[in-house]
């Protein structure tokens, strides 16, 4: 038979099969030629495979050699005393473990007399019970690139003047400390992470320093970073979050610059600075910690363009002799925005303080709080304590001489009060109104007829908080439902005429150099006390009725001055009707003091209150007081008997002047 010729279409599949076979053979030959155990992209002087010694390869290498490690695991404790590079196949593929628990996985002592540079790339240092992943000393420089150090007691320790660089690397699950920098060692963290350790993440001491860029310190059981001595750190576009203690702790003369960084969700303070430490916080966020920033000792902090928000207690706390300079920042949704104590000082300028559950800014410090251009809004109380009202911008421009309340132009009483010019009057119609007011200027609040009740926002806040610059006149209103009815501090002044202060925890509280003049008022039924005057404050109470307080009716302490005249003090608690201690001074004339569960009038010292640590070194004068049925006695000490006589007398326990 004659053979038919094959068509071209039928011959093509065979041809493609031949081409495919040739391509596979060529690819296989190419793969064999690049040696798959070599790390790709490196000119390997030697390749070490599992079962071979890395230390022997290091000993035989020349300066600058690249030692490639194949996929696999090695149990060796390496000592590197020359400039070499160790390259693996990836942090989960090439794994080194210390051969002995007390030795580091990699030791770079750096004591050869010449600086050496060591690079580790794409490998892991790991052992569940290992002591230290890597130790660096002397003048050595070590860079870890795409490496992981995990499961060690200490992840990495660098001492002397060693230099450590971590790039795209991690130190995790350390059982005690992730990274330790001692002496004058320095470290750079670039896109790296220290996380998941049981204790402290990074400790820096001596004059050591660290620079973290786009890096993260998170989820550790102790502090995120701890600095002491003269150590320093710069955090740039980084994150310190979710650590079990403080995010950043500075003691001694250590310093921190926190730039465009988030410090959040740490169980204790976000930043805590002690002794003479210094902190710069710029363009950063401090969120959802216990305190946001906590300064004590002689520390200094500069805070600018920052957001300090959602912290469970104080946004910024400044104690002892510390100082904080805050500008252009937002302090929001904390328990208290800014809290000063001791003799601490602060300057707050051009900032927003909002949504604080208690005070926006409170100072119990004898130091000054200065500043201007600050907006306060939606806080429990904007300002409280020893501070100037000039710190706060009014919610409305003050243009009114009189406002009749309610007034639909204003959303709150605070807005209406702020809209008054100095000397302006707010006349209130009959009704009950929520107050929680900060008073920092001279204004008058008056009943326009009928019963007017001004209530606290909550029973944890005062109804009125008066700060320096306040000169408040209250006429014919009831003040109720606060932690304190009226809280006066700094140089605040108040006049109460025909008012009732009732249903608060404490009726009236004065501190610092504040002053109050009370006439024809009822101060009744406050849970703890009626009137308490401390510091160098002064109170005058005339023709009033003080009754039904659990601790005492009226008390003065420190160097406060008190005048009570033509007033009834009755049914007050176990401390008595009128109580004096420290260096306070009182003038008591023509009062009726009856049916108190404690003394009628007493000084708070051991004669009257056995076991007390308080004493009285002040002055009391008075006359024509009617005493009756005070359970512990009408007066104590007995020398106060002159108070019930028409002629009166005085008791002077003040120490003689120093010549």
Description:
The chain is mostly beta strands and 659 residues long. Among the domains are: 35-198, Pectate Lyase C-like (3 Solenoid); 401-527, no CATH class; 530-654, no CATH class. Helix content is 6%, strand content 46%. It has a 26-stranded parallel beta sheet that branches. A 15-stranded parallel beta sheet has the order 1-2-5-8-10-12-15-18-21-24-27-30-33-36-39, with helices on one face. An eleven-stranded mixed beta sheet has the order 42-43-46-49-52-55-58-61-64-67-70. Strand 1 (46-48), helix 2 (54-60) and strand 2 form a beta-alpha-beta unit. The relative contact order is 0.03.
Main features:
3 helices; 659 residues; mainly beta; 70 strands; Pectate Lyase C-like; 26-stranded parallel β-sheet
């Amino acid at each position: 038979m004659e053979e038919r010729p094959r068509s071209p279409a039928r011959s093509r599949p065979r041809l493609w099969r031949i081409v495919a076979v040739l391509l596979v053979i060529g690819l296989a030959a190419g793969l064999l030629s690049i040696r798959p155990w070599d790390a790709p992209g490196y000119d390997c002087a030697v390749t070490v495979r599992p079962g071979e010694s890395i230390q022997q390869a290091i000993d035989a290498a020349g300066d600058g050699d690249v030692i490639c490690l194949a996929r696999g695991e090695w149990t060796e404790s390496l000592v590197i005393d020359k400039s070499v590079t160790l390259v693996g196949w990836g942090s989960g593929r090439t794994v080194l473990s210390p051969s002995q628990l007390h030795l580091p996985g990699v030791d770079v002592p750096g004591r050869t007399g010449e600086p050496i540079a060591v690079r580790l790339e794409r490998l892991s240092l790991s052992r569940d019970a290992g002591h230290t992943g890597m130790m660096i000393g002397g003048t050595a420089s070590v860079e870890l690139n795409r490496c992981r150090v995990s499961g060690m007691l200490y992840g990495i320790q660098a001492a002397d003047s060693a230099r450590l660089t971590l790039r795209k690397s991690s130190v995790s699950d350390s059982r005690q400390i992730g990274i330790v920098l001692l002496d004058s060692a320095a470290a750079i963290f670039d896109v790296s992470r220290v996380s998941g350790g049981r204790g402290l993440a990074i400790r820096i001491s001596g004059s050591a320093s660290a620079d973290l860029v786009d890096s993260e310190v998170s989820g550790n059981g102790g502090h995120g970073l701890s600095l002491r001595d003269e150590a320093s750190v710069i955090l740039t576009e980084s994150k310190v979050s979710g650590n079990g203690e403080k995010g950043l702790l500075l003691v001694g003369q250590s310093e921190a610059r926190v730039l465009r960084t988030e410090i959040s969700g740490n169980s204790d303070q976000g930043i805590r600075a002690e002794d003479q430490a210094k902190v710069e916080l710029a363009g950063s966020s401090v969120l959802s910690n216990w305190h946001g920033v906590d300064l004590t000792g002689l520390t200094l902090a500069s805070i600018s363009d920052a957001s300090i928000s959602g912290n469970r207690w104080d946004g910024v706390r400044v104690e002892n002799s510390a100082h904080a300079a805050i500008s252009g920042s937002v302090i929001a949704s904390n328990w208290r925005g800014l809290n000063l104590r001791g003799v601490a000082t602060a300057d707050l300028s051009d900032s927003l303080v909002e949504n604080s559950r208690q005070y926006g800014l409170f100072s119990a410090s004898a130091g000054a709080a200065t500043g201007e251009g600050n907006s306060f809004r939606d806080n429990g109380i904007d300002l409280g304590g020893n501070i100037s009202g000039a710190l706060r911008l009014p919610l409305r421009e003050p243009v009114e001489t009189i406002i009749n309340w309610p007034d639909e132009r204003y959303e709150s009483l605070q807005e209406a009060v702020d809209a008054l010019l100095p000397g302006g009057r707010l006349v209130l119609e009959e009704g009950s109104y929520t107050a929680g007011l900060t008073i920092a200027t001279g204004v008058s609040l008056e009943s326009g007829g009928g019963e007017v009740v001004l209530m606290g926002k909550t029973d944890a806040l005062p109804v009125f908080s008066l700060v320096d610059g306040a000169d408040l006149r209250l006429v014919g209103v009831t003040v109720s439902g606060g932690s304190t009815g009226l809280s006066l501090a700094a140089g605040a002044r108040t006049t109460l005429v025909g008012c009732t202060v009732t249903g608060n925890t404490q009726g009236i509280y004065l501190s610092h150099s504040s002053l109050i003049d009370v006439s024809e008022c009822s101060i009744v039924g406050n849970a703890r006390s009626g009137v308490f005057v401390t510091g160098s404050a002064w109170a005058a109470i005339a023709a009033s009725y003080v009754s039904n307080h659990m601790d005492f009716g009226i008390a003065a302490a420190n160097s406060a001055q008190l005048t009570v005249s033509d007033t009834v003090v009755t049914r007050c608690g176990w401390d008595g009707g009128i109580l004096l201690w420290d260096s306070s001074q009182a003038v008591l004339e023509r009062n009726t003091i009856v049916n108190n569960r404690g003394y009628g009038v007493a000084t708070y010292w051991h004669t009257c209150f056995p076991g007390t640590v308080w004493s009285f070194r002040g002055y009391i004068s008075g006359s024509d007081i009617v005493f009756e049925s005070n359970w512990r006695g009408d007066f104590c000490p007995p020398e106060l008997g002159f108070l019930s006589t028409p002629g009166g007398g005085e008791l002077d326990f003040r120490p003689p002047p120093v010549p």
